[in-house]
Structure formats: C-alpha cells, structure tokens
Amino acid sequence: MNNNSKIFLVLAACAAVVVFAACKQNAPEWPVEYTDAATVGIASVTNYFRFEEDGTFLTGTRTSAAGQTIEVKGFSGTYTGNPKADGEVKITYSSGTSTLTISGGKFTFAGKEYSR
C-alpha cells in the first residue's frame, strides 16, 4: 500500500468518526417532548406531549408563576411511528386515534402548534 492510499484511509476514517459524532449529537434523547408555550398574565403556561421510548405518550400542562410550578397531567396512550423525526406518528388514547404529522420538528394538535 503506498503513502497516498494510507493517507486516504486515515482521512476517510476520520470523516466517518466526525459524521457519526455529529449525527449522534443531533438526535434527541428520550423522552422526546414537544411544547406549546405562552404567557398568560404573570404566568408561563406550557402544554406538552411527552413521548417515551416504550411506545407510550403523555400530555399535560405546566404553569409557572412567582417561582412556583404546577403540573397537571392530561391524557395518555400509545403511539406508533418515530416522534424523534419528521413524519407521521399515530397516537391512540381513550377518545380514539389521531395522526400527528411532524414537519420541521413541529406538529399541530387541537389548534395548537407544538415544537421540539
């Protein structure tokens, strides 16, 4: 093997390591949470969808004011699809099923836009 081949192999290996590390850093960890936040008077209100790795999800609302936070759980259920990426995620809950279309890290549910 000549020196040019050795240099090429070393550079290719380095490039592969850099690409792998960059992709790993950009992937969200579990749980994946999408939020819709607003300020109402002096309170900060955040609605969320939290997707767990085991195929379950939970919704809820966190309200913060005067240094205190209250969290109220909403509905929960199961999902199919990949909430970490753009595409469709089908959620099933006690009231039925819905399909969330994630695009650019965002989706709309019940008139609210949630983002990752």
Give the averaged pLDDT, no decimals.
84
Oligomer: single chain
The topology string of helices and strands comes to HEEEEEEEE
Find the structural class using helix and strand composition: alpha+beta
Low-pLDDT regions: 3-24
- Global Rg: 21 Å
In DSSP terms (H or I, runs of 4 or more residues), the helix count works out at 1
Q: Percent of residues in beta strands?
A: over 45%
**Fraction of residues in helix:** 10-25%
What distance lies between the first and last C-alpha atoms, to the nearest angstrom? 48 Å
Description:
- With 116 residues, the protein is of the alpha+beta class.
- It has one helix at residues 3-26; strands at residues 32-40, 43-51, 56-65, 68-80, 87-93, 96-102, 106-109, 112-115.
- Strands 1-2-3-4-5-6 form a six-stranded antiparallel sheet, with no helix packed on it.
- β1 and β2 (43-51) form a beta hairpin.
